[in-house]
Structure formats: structure tokens, C-alpha cells
Design brief:
Number of helices: 3
Radius of gyration: 60 Å
Helix content: 55-70%
Structural class: alpha+beta
Order of helices and strands: HHHEEEEEE
Strand order of the largest sheet: 1-4-5
Number of strands: 6
Oligomer: single chain
């Protein structure tokens, strides 16, 4: 009996020992697991820090590129503005050139006969003096043909926009009259045309030849 009892006690002690060993193994495993978890957490945190640092560097690079792009964009906008202003200036100059050229062409067409008519009125001066000369009846009849030619030429001048400038007894105007002499005249105020030496002519709205006159003092 005692032997059986002794064996049972030994068995119980062995079971207790096995139980303790199992608990020890479980505890060690638990500690190892905790250690591994902590290690994994540390690794995760470390990886997160690396990622965060990398993201910050990338963000910094992007900000720098953005600033550079904005600077380049501003420079381009300034160049575009300068080119636009230059283009508008060139266009305005071109339009002014076209306008001036067109005005010059209009004037050239308008006063195309200016030089010809100027020469013609110089010839007419000779005709006027010739047909206005007082002479005998026989010569007067001979000059009638020239008077008719002179009248026709005057009509041609009028038709082409040429008209005589009124000067006699008019106030002297340097735009239309050219004074060759000033004279003393009683009962005439100063600056009045008292004699017309050569008739002046207008060609449309331009002075073809000013009147040559004497003016009172």
C-alpha cells in the first residue's frame, strides 16, 4: 500500500513539475511574442519616420519647382505684355502711315494740275495785258480773236477749280497777298490793298499764286 501511495505522490510531483515547466514555456513564449511585437512596432515607427521624411523632402522639392515655375510664368507674362505693346505700337504706326499715304494720294489727285495751271496763268497774264491794251479800232478788231481765246482759257481755269483772289480795297492778308510796296494814301486806313500789280489765283482751297499788291501805310 505504501508503495502505491509513494508512487502516486511521485506521479503528482511529476505532474506538478510538468505543469510548472509548461507555464514557464508559456511565459517565455509570451515574453518573446511581446518582444517581437515591440520590435515590429519599432520597425513600423521607424518605417513611418522614413516615409514622413521622404514625403517632406518631396513636398519641399515640389514647392521649389512651383516657385520656379511661377517665376518663369511671370517672366513669360512680362515678355508677352511687352511684345503685345510693341505689336500695338507697330500696328498704330502702320495705320498712321496708311492714313498719311492715303491723304497724300488724295492731295496729289486733288491738286494734280497745280504746276500746269501755275504755268498757264503766267501765260494768261500776257494775254490779259495784250487784249486789254488800248489801241486803234483796226487793231482792236484784230485782237477780238485773242480776247475770245483768253475768255475760253479763263473758263477752263474756272472749270478746273481756279478762281481769282480779290485783293483791291481789301484788308491785306499775308495768306493771299504779297506786298511789293507800301504807299501813303489819303483817306485810306493802314493795311489796305490800294493797287493790284499782278492778279492772284486760288486752286480749289489752295493758293496757286498770291496777289502782288501795294498796301497803304
Amino acid at each position: 500500500m505504501e508503495n502505491n501511495r509513494y508512487r502516486e505522490e511521485e506521479k503528482e510531483q511529476e505532474e506538478i513539475k510538468d505543469q510548472k515547466e509548461l507555464e514557464s514555456v508559456v511565459i517565455e513564449k509570451s515574453l518573446d511574442d511581446d518582444k517581437n511585437v515591440n520590435h515590429d512596432n519599432d520597425e513600423t515607427l521607424k518605417n513611418d519616420d522614413v516615409k514622413n521624411n521622404k514625403s517632406k523632402k518631396e513636398i519641399k522639392k515640389l514647392k521649389k519647382k512651383l516657385e520656379e515655375s511661377e517665376k518663369v510664368n511671370e517672366e513669360l507674362l512680362q515678355k508677352i505684355s511687352a511684345l503685345t505693346n510693341e505689336m500695338l505700337k507697330d500696328r498704330a504706326e502702320l495705320e498712321n502711315f496708311k492714313r498719311r499715304t492715303n491723304e497724300e494720294r488724295i492731295r496729289e489727285r486733288k491738286y494734280a494740275l497745280n504746276d500746269f495751271l501755275l504755268e498757264l496763268i503766267n501765260v494768261l497774264d500776257i494775254f490779259d495785258r495784250a487784249v486789254s491794251t488800248k489801241t486803234d479800232e483796226k487793231l482792236a478788231k484784230y485782237l477780238m480773236g485773242f480776247q475770245m481765246v483768253n475768255a475760253q482759257l479763263q473758263q477752263i481755269l474756272t472749270k478746273n477749280g481756279v478762281s481769282k483772289i480779290e485783293a483791291l480795297n481789301k484788308k491785306f492778308d499775308p495768306l493771299y497777298h504779297s506786298a511789293v510796296e507800301t504807299v501813303e494814301c489819303e483817306n485810306v486806313e493802314s493795311g489796305v490793298v490800294v493797287e493790284e500789280i499782278m492778279t492772284g489765283y486760288m486752286y480749289k482751297d489752295r493758293v496757286l499764286r498770291p496777289s502782288m499788291v501795294k498796301v497803304s501805310k
